[in-house]
């Protein structure tokens, strides 16, 4: 037996349609406020991850030796990738990431 969870708005729409009710045109989708809050939460998470990567990068640079060259490059690549992700997520939130931060 499968355990599935129905989307409450979909279940309500199906119940309304099954009982001869009329579904409002906007009842099936997410509210813009919910999507905005979700985008903001994703940006916040990305910012926290970026701060963690910056901390790791700082530790790697402060104790740099020839053996830490590969971890340094990996952390730099991870930081650039996360900054790119943060910028893309911020586009959906009306949050501007300055180009100085991205560069």
How does this structure look, described?
With 103 residues, the protein is mostly helical. The chain contains four helices and no strands. Belongs to the Mediator complex subunit 10 family. Keywords: Activator, Nucleus, Transcription, Transcription regulation.
Notable features of this structure?
single chain; 103 residues; mainly alpha; 4 helices; disordered N terminus; transcription regulation; transcription; Mediator of RNA polymerase II transcription subunit 10; activator; Mediator_Med10
How is this fold's topology laid out?
Elements: H1 8-18, H2 32-62, H3 69-91, H4 99-102
Percent of sequence in beta strands: under 5%
Please bin the fraction of helical residues. 55-70%
What is the N-to-C succession of helices and strands?
HHHH
Q: What's the pLDDT, averaged over the residues?
A: 75
Number of helices: 4
Which structural class fits the helix and strand makeup?
A: mainly alpha
Q: How many extended strands?
A: 0
Tell me the overall shape: elongated
For the biggest sheet, the summary is:
none
Poorly predicted segments = 1-27
State the end-to-end CA separation.
Answer: 52 Å
Q: What Rg is obtained from the alpha carbons, in whole angstroms?
A: 22 Å
Keywords: Activator, Nucleus, Transcription, Transcription regulation
InterPro entries: Mediator_Med10
Pfam family, one: Med10
GO biological process, one term: regulation of transcription by RNA polymerase II
């Amino acid at each position: 037996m499968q355990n599935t969870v129905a989307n409450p708005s979909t279940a309500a729409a199906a119940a309304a349609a099954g009982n001869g009710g009329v579904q409002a045109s906007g009842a099936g989708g997410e509210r813009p406020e919910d999507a905005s809050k979700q985008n903001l939460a994703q940006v916040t998470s990305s910012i926290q991850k970026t701060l963690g990567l910056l901390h790791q990068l700082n530790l790697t640079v402060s104790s740099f030796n020839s053996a830490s060259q590969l971890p340094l490059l990996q952390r730099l690549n991870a930081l650039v990738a996360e900054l790119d992700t943060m910028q893309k997520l911020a586009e959906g939130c009306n949050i501007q990431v300055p180009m100085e931060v991205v560069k």
